[in-house]
Amino acid sequence: MTNLRFNALETASARTAKEVEAPSNKISDYFGEDCFGLTQMKAALAPAIYKKVESAVKYGTKIDEATADAVASAVMTWAVSKGVTHHTHWFQPLTGSSAEKHDSFFDYTKGIETFKGSTLTQQEPDASSFPNGGIRATNQARGYTGWDPSSPIFITNKTLCIPTIFVSYTGDTLDYKTPLLKAQEAINKATIDVCNYFEEGVTSISASLGCEQEYFLVDKAFYAARPDLYIAGRTLFGAKPPHGQQLDDHYFGSIAPRVAAFMKDFELQCHKLGIPVTTRHNEVAPGQFEAAPLYEEINTAVDHNLLMMDVMEQVASEHNLAVLLHEKPFANLNGSGKHNNWSLITNKGRNLFQPEGSLYFLTFLVNTIKAVHVYGDLMRASIASAGNDHRLGANEAPPAIMSVFLGSTLTNFLNEVSESGKLVYAEGGDEYIELGVEKIPGLKLDNTDRNRTSPFAFTGNKFEFRAVGSTQNTATPMTVLNLIVAEQLTQFKASVDAAIAGGKDKEAAIREILVQYIKESEAIRFEGDGYSQEWVDEAESRGLSNVKDTPRALDFFISAEAKEIFAKHNVFTEREIEARHDVWSEIYSTKIDIESKAMEEIVLNKVIPASASYVSKLADSATKLSALGLDASAITTTLKEVTGFMAQAKEGVAAMVTERDRVLEIEDTNAQAVEFCDSIKHKYFDTIREAVDRLELFVDDAEWPLPKYSEMLFLK
C-alpha cells in the first residue's frame, strides 16, 4: 500500500491541463441546446398544443392525452436527431441523489422508434426498493413517477431525462420534488392574498432560488489511494498540514490550469443543459472552489443544482480529478455549504424583498422574520445531516442556532419600531463610500453589510439560507422555508382581515400587526459574530434552540406543531413525515456505521502495519546504537510514543467495534441514530483519529500509506 501513495504522487505530479474547446465564443450560441423546455416547445409544437403545456406550467392545469402525445412525439424527434436512443424518468428518491431507469425508443415489434404520451407522463419504478420509512413493504412494490412539465426535459449521456415526481401506489410521496411543489402552491396562494392588499393584478408569484455550490477537488489518484474518501466521502484521518488556509492566499486567487480546464468544461456542459452557471472562483480552503448560477424558479433551480452536481462529478473524472461534495472532507479546514439565495417575485416582476420605503416591502420582510422566529426549529431540521453536523458551528459556517441577520439600517429601524410602537419608514437616498482617490469613483453603499456567520441573512434584496449543506438536495430546506412563510402570511392575512372587519382602516391594521410581529420576533434577530461563544450563551438566554446533532434535530419534524403545519398545507401527511423521520434517521445511522467500519479497516490494514514496520526499524536502530555504547534514548522515547499511539488506535477500534455491535441490535431507528451519534461518533471517532494523526507525524514518510493533506490539497 505504500507504493500506492507514491504512485499517486508521481501520477498527480505528471498531470497537465486538458484542452477544452467551446462550440462558440458566445455562450448564447449553445446555451440550452441539450434541454427541451418551454422555449424549445414553443418552436416545436403547434400553437394550440403549446398553450396547453404553458397553462399546465403556469397555472397547474391538467395535460390531456392528445397534448401529451404531441409533446412526446416532438421531444422524441428532437432527441433522436441528437443521437439519443433511450429515455428515462429522472426522479429524486429519498436516497439523496437522482434515480433513473433507461428504456429504448426502439419498438422491436414494429421496427421503429416510438414514444407515447402515456410513457412521457407516467412510469412505474419499484417503490419498495427505495427508502420509504415503512410506507411500502417488499410485497407492495408498485409506485409511480409522473412528469413535471414545469422543469425542462434534458439530455445527458445520450439519454433523454424527464424530470418527474415519485409516489407510492397509495399516493404517499417518496421523493423530494413532490413536497416542494406542494409548498410552492402554498406560498403562491398565501403571497397573492397579501399582495392584493397593496396592488391589483398579482395573480401568481415565483419563489426564486440561486444555489452557490461549494466543493473540493483532488487528483483522482489521491482519491483512489484514500479508502475513506471513496467510501465515506471525507478524510477520517489526516494530520494538519504546516500550510493550510492560514494565509488566506487561496481565496479568490488565480485558478490552477487543471482546475480552470475542469471549470470551463463543467460550465460548458451546464450551459448546454440550460443551467445558468455564471460564477467560478477559489474558495477559502486550499483545494476548495465554488460555482454559482443565476436565479431561477425554485423547482427548476433545485433540479438544476442536483443535475449540476452529477455533471460536476462526471466532468471531473474526465480531467482525472475527483469532486468532494461532502460538507467537511478535511478537518481543520473550512467545510462546504450550498448557500440558498431565496426571494419572491410577482407575475408583474416585483421582487417583494427589494428594499423601499413602503409598507409593501416591510410586510414581507417582517413576516419572513416572524416565520423564522416561530419555526426556526423546523429550519434547523431541514439542514440536518451527518455531513453538515461536522460543518455547522465549526468556526467557519453558521452555527446550529437559527437567527436572522438584517444589517444595521434595517435593524436600527426595527429597534426603533419596537421602542416607539410606531411604524414609519422612508427610504433615504443612495450613500457612497468616498475613497479619496480621484481615479476611483465613489462606491455605492448597500443597505446591509454581509454576515457570513449568519445562517439566514438578508443580503440586499433576498434572503440567503447559508446553513444548507453542500451535499444536500435543496428541496427539503426550500420546502420548509416556503411552507413556514406561507403559514405566517396566512396568519397575517387572517389577523388583518379580522381587524378590518372590526372597523379598522386597512393600512392601520397592517401597521399595528407588523409592529406586534416586530416586537414578538426580536429574539431571532442577531447582527454579531455567530461563531462566538458569547452568541451561544446569549442565544440560550433568548430561548433559541442549539441542537448540534442530526438525530435530535430530526425530531423537530415530528413535533405536533410541525405535523399540524405540514397537514394544513397538504405538504406531508402525518404518515409521510413520520416515514421521512424514519428514513433520515436510518440514513444517519448507516453513514456513521460506514465511517466506523472504514476507520476499522484503515487502522487495522494500513496504519498499524505501517507503524509496526517503522517500530521495527526504530528498535533495530536502538539495539545497534546500544551495542556500540551510544545513547539510544531519543529513539527509545520515540518508540514509546509511537507504540503508545498504536495502542490507542488499536484499543479504540476494538472498543468501538464492540459498542457498534450493540448499537446495531437496536430496532428503533431514531434511538439507534442517537446511539450511533453518542456512543460511536462522539465517543470514539476523535480519540482514534487523534492517535492516527499523531502516528502520521511520527512514522517515516516512506512508510506512511495514505496520501497526506499537503499532497492532496496543493498538488493540482
From TrEMBL:
What region holds the GS catalytic domain? Answer: 176-607
Q: Which Pfam families match?
A: Gln-synt_C, Gln-synt_C-ter, GSIII_N
Q: Which residues are in the GS beta-grasp domain?
A: 85-171
GO biological process: what's one of them? glutamine biosynthetic process
**Which InterPro entries does this entry report, sorted A to Z?**
Gln-synt_C, Gln_synt_N, Gln_synth/guanido_kin_cat_dom, Gln_synth_cat_dom, Gln_synth_gly_rich_site, GS_Type-3, GSIII_N
User: Which Gene3D superfamilies does the UniProt entry name for this protein?
Assistant: 1.20.120.1560, Glutamine synthetase/guanido kinase, catalytic domain
**Which domain of life, per UniProt?**
Bacteria
Recall the GO molecular function terms of this protein's record.
glutamine synthetase activity
Family named by the database record: Belongs to the glutamine synthetase family.
Protein name (Swiss-Prot/TrEMBL) = Glutamine synthetase III
